Amino acid sequence: MNLIIEKAKPQQAKEILDCIKKAVTESDNLIVTMDNLKNYTVIEEKFLIEGYNRSKTGLMLVGMVDEKIVSIGTLQGNDITSKSGHRVTLGIFVLKDYWNMGIGRQMITAMLDYCVENPYIEIVDLDVRADNEAAIGLYERFGFDRIGYYEDYFKDEGGNYGDAILMALYL
């Protein structure tokens, strides 16, 4: 399997949105729900990608296998002039058919390489479902520390709650 990782392009907006919708149906670990995506358009996704590409700290990467997007990773940055401008929030998913193939590790490596090279970024944070032990272990192998526990952080479409572990990597 040959994974190609590149910055998301606006012309990939439809494929990216389709990939997100598929991932939401495959895993309860994502914060986005199908209700969130019900009225979300390809044009809105295109604008979002363009925003990431203009950002001084933000980043959206796509991971592709055989020219198909199978993973998306984001670093959501803040205005660099704000008091939180030195932080980014990491988000990632891999489609279920591609789990346990090292794609998540490769995507996180690419995002953290970007962070290390970016003079504005000092802290990478994330939240992860407290019961997602595989993801927590992966983040810890990258050096992320647990910095907090948030009860009832997630609420699914059925009204069920899930807790989160807050993690951070200080560069």
Features of the shown structure:
7 strands; 171 residues; 34% strand; 7-stranded mixed beta sheet; globular
Describe this structure in words.
It is a single chain. With 171 residues, the chain is α+β, with helices and mostly antiparallel strands. 32% of the residues lie in helices and 34% in strands. The protein contains five helices and seven strands, in the order E-H-H-H-E-E-E-H-E-H-E-E. Strands 1-2-3-4-5-7-6 form a seven-stranded mixed β-sheet, sandwiched between helices. Helix 1 (13-26) packs across helix 3 (42-54).
Helix count, DSSP H or I runs of 4 or more residues: 5
Low-confidence stretches: none
User: What structural class do the secondary elements suggest?
Assistant: alpha+beta
What does the radius of gyration come to?
A: 16 Å
Helix content: 25-40%
| Average pLDDT for all residues | 94
Q: State the end-to-end distance.
A: 31 Å
Q: Bin the strand percentage.
A: 25-35%
Largest sheet, spatial ordering of strands: 1-2-3-4-5-7-6
Shape label:
globular
Q: Tell me the series of helices and strands, N- to C-terminal.
A: EHHHEEEHEHEE
Write the layout of secondary structure elements.
Elements: E1 3-7, H1 13-26, H2 34-37, H3 42-54, E2 59-65, E3 68-77, E4 87-94, H4 103-117, E5 123-129, H5 133-141, E6 145-155, E7 161-170
Parallel strand pairs: 4-5
Antiparallel strand pairs: 1-2, 2-3, 3-4, 5-7, 6-7
Helix pairs in contact: 1-3
